[in-house]
Amino acid sequence: xxxxxxxxxxxxxxxxxxxxxxxxxxxxSVINWLYPNPMELPPPLVQIGIFVGIGLLWAFxxxxxxxxxxQEDPDA
Length: 76
Hints:
By secondary structure, the chain is an all-alpha fold.
């Protein structure tokens, strides 16, 4: 079942205003759990890879909701 343009627009707003901050808190908590001691952090390039991966991880499953939201309503 495909979502209508209005439904996708509403869901994208909910995801960005509610879901993304929750995701950030969870991601930071996981990183703190994996590396509790700041002296044991991996090298900087590995850190960049981890944070870029975590930063993109939320976007791919929700790509269909955000696709075309900035365009005019196709039903209008």
